[in-house]
Amino acid sequence: MRLQRRAGILLHPTSLPSPFGIGDFGEEAFRFLRQLAEAGQTIWQMLPLGPAGYGNSPYAMFSAFAGNPLLISPEILVHNGLLSQEDLHEVPHFREDVVEYARVSEFKLALLRRAHENFVAKASPEVRHKFDQFCADHKPWLDDYALFIALKSHFGEKNWTDWDKPLVRREPAVLYEWQEKLGDEIEVRKYWQFEFFRQWQALRDEAQRLNIQIVGDLPIYVSHDSADVWAHSEQFCLDKDGRSTVVAGVPPDYFSETGQLWGNPLYRWEEMKRAGYEWWIKRFRAAFRLFDVVRLDHFRGFQAYWQVPASEKTAVNGQWMEGPGAALFKEVKKHLGDLRMVAENLGDITPEVEQLRRELDLPGMAVLQFAFSGADPDNAFLPHNFERNVFAYTGTHDNDTLMGWWNSTGGDSTRSDEDIRKEKSFALQYVGDGTEAFQWRLLRALYSSIAQAAIVPMQDVLGLPSASRMNRPGDGEGNWTWRLPLGAFSPGIQAHLKELAVVYGRAPRNH
User: Fold this and answer.
1) φ, ψ for residue 383 (rounded to 5)?
2) pLDDT, mean over the chain
3) Is residue 330 within 8 Å of 313, Cβ to Cβ?
4) Distance (Å, rounded) from C-alpha 423 to C-alpha 194?
């Protein structure tokens, strides 16, 4: 996949300003698109949009196909006559700097239930038909997801392996019985998906009008506690009771001496191959309904993946296993056409992984924060060493912020004090003296490279400290909460970004 030179910003929609405690697809999302256009940006990159599970992580979703209802805009529901202005008069006072997920969920889901009641009572025949058509079009995943979420609620949010055994085994007669019993709740959940996708499509249409591409993540793994694993257990490495026998992770690396134990169930790749990779084809098709370009999180795992026994407490005692390789992507391409994907090829990358990426003609990634380690001018992450076919970043959602990294003492990595001293000295030598703030000098280096895309997390555009980072790998709590202060993405900052985009040929040519 090859793009014209572009620039963009990484910002998850939950981080947008909003009076409702969490960013959504409403007015501020449309404003952000206009701000991107004003700043000469043509990419909005975000994290997965699915219903977040454990730790509110968008990488631990209850479904690989569904959308997060918390992203539905109450303002749009008012505009469409599904809520009244009075419904929004008693909005609780939410913190503006972080998402308070428990409070936000309680408030917003109550609003969404009211919207469903109004939909049932007074939706026009035309809108009802659209809802029925949506349910028919998405039936292969929607029925399982809506039943799964209704059952989770009924059983006190327990993992599906702790439900009644006939439900764990998905006995048809028992499924039918529960579908009847929880019919109203199932309809509520389907309606929320209908609203999510029609609001998202309106935002996508505006992005297209402004020549902005949406880049979104597709995590290689899904959560064990998900409709996907419950409904397709035969395609995952589970025992007879539905529990994982082996789980995903990565070996010891820059971030951790004991590796990262993610805990996701691993795929039975041979079983998936026998099924013609049907589940993956459906998953990629759903991803391309959401995004113009898909970033394949942990691309390395498609070539070989780290398998850890489920009984282990760390990821140290794992082993590399062969992944599906090019066969999966060739099957996907056969059904869906060109692979509009970016390979996240960070970490322990072997020649075999790079060979697969090049065979598929996928852009890789480069992260500027990793460029100065060892003070080595041959470091592949230094801008003068970039390939053209790469998406280059100052950092990702897993990194410290740029200024947090610059001011850090190494507590989030395995670096020594001497490593950090050399790293900072080399970084200063690389960007040189100048009147611009340090983060802008690094952004200039990124923009001036030959990388086809230069993408910067919003926190780095604003020069924010570590307290504003999105995620700390290995920490189960307190992540994914950062919010963009209202007005922080100011006209002055937009103008500075636009200047860089124009000077280095990353702005649309009509600018």
Assistant:
1) -55, -35
2) 95
3) no
4) 49
Examine the residue annotation and report whether 398 is marked as an active-site residue of this protein: yes
Catalytic status, residue 344: yes
Three-state secondary-structure class, residue 258: coil
Residue among 257, 270, 264 at smallest CA distance from 308:
264
* Contact present, 135 and 191 (Cβ < 8 Å): no
pLDDT tens across 446-487, in order? 999 999 999 999 999 999 999 999 999 877 788 999 999 999
Nearest CA to 152 out of 238, 236, 51 is that of 51
Please name the amino acid found at residue 57: S
Q: How far apart are CA 124 and CA 212, in angstroms?
A: 33
- Cα 500 to Cα 7: distance, rounded to the nearest angstrom: 9
| Gap between the Cα atoms of 489 and 152, Å rounded | 39
Residues 292, 210: Cα–Cα separation, whole Å:
14
Residue 332 and residue 281 in contact, taking contact as beta carbons nearer than 8 Å: yes
Find the catalytic residue in 28, 195, 217, 398: 398
CB atoms within 10 A of CB 4: 11
Catalytic residue among 28, 228, 344, 400: 344
Query: What radius of gyration, in Å, describes the C-alpha atoms of the chain?
Result: 23
Q: Which residues contact 454 (CB under 8 A, 6 or more apart)?
A: 6, 7, 8, 392, 393, 446, 447, 504, 506
Q: Which residues contact 428 (CB under 8 A, 6 or more apart)?
A: none
297 classed as catalytic: yes
Catalytic site residue from 24, 297, 331, 412: 297
Collapsing DSSP to helix, strand or coil, 342 comes out as strand
What tens digit of pLDDT does each residue of 327-371 get?
Answer: 999 999 999 999 999 999 998 899 999 999 999 999 999 999 999
Listed in sequence order, the residues at least 6 apart from 166 whose beta carbon sits closer than 8 Å to its beta carbon are 174
Q: At what angle do helices 183-209 and 27-38 cross, to 10 degrees?
A: 20
| Chain CA centroid to CA 196, Å | 16
Q: What is the DSSP string of 206-255?
A: HHHHTT-EEEEEEESS--SSSHHHHHTGGGB-B-TTS-BSEEEEE-S-SS
Report the candidate in 239, 479, 253, 229 with the shortest Cα–Cα distance to residue 346: 253
- Is the pTM here over 0.70, yes or no? yes
By CB atoms closer than 10 A (0-12, 13-18, 19+), residue 68 is buried
Q: Is 20 within 8 Å of 74 (Cβ atoms)? A: yes
